[in-house]
Prior knowledge:
Blueprint: E1 14-17, H1 33-42, E2 46-51, H2 57-66, E3 77-80, H3 81-90, E4 97-101, E5 115-116, E6 125-128, E7 132-135, E8 138-141, H4 149-158, E9 162-164, E10 170-171, E11 180-181, H5 183-193, E12 197-199, H6 205-211, E13 222-226, H7 229-239, E14 242-246, H8 250-257, H9 263-270, E15 276-278
Parallel strand pairs: 1-2, 1-13, 2-3, 4-5, 4-6, 6-9, 9-12, 13-14, 14-15
Antiparallel strand pairs: 7-8, 10-11
Amino acid sequence: MLDNILSLKDKFDVFILDFFGVVWDGKNQIEGVTEHLSALHKEKKKMIFLSNSVRSSIEAEQIYAQRGFIKGVHYDEVVTSGDLAYDVFSSDNRKLKFYQFGHANKNLFANTKYQEVGNPEDADFIYIGEPQILENGIWKDVVNITPFEAELRKFYKLGLPLICANPDLRSPAGQYEDTVVRQGSVARFYEDLGGEVEYFGKPYPLIFDFALKNIDAPDNRIIMIGDTLETDILGGKSYGIKTALTMTGIAKENMEVEGFSSIGQYCGEVQIIPDYIIKTL
Length: 281
């Protein structure tokens, strides 16, 4: 196990990094990450945050800056699955009708030909918004999908496909000690019912094509670094680049919850094996 990301600096020119669980724990910066990121940036390494967030890259940059991560100092670019989804939606000339599930996202559909409808019975597809519940006018995260199961079964009976622009199953959230449900968990439940889901984001190859479209580097000089086996590591491996798993996020948490004594054993059980394991970024 490597101590930190600097152990890999001579092997790679392009570092693709997840944000949550890698540099940010949901409440604070993970210790030492800004120093390591700026050190790599000074050595002219290309640093890309690749996020399964439905926010635009511009919104993400603003949020990252508020948390102490500065473009041009700690990284070069942010690419989000929201960017990719908007790129696809805005280039589609079909006048499709969609219904928004959960906490709606209006920005992804601005300036598209898609039309939002108020009832799923009138829709061509369901867009999975952030899986939150509205309480007293405030949208709140949840720790399991139980509150949504009846609605998802209704969508399935209607035969509607779902679109998921954030394949993450769970993520840290400031108001909970535990991780909270994200769109990927909703999509997985729907697929288990037998429903159809279209994804944008890690681990699917299109997001890597999108992130690397302006990068001129051979695959063996590019590495994906993340805390989640099912999205970050599987995504990098499927794309044909090297991967590194950090011990500061979801994979470590899952390992402990499921009672494994080592991360190697846990990766073997899941059958997703990173090329490197690092204690912290």
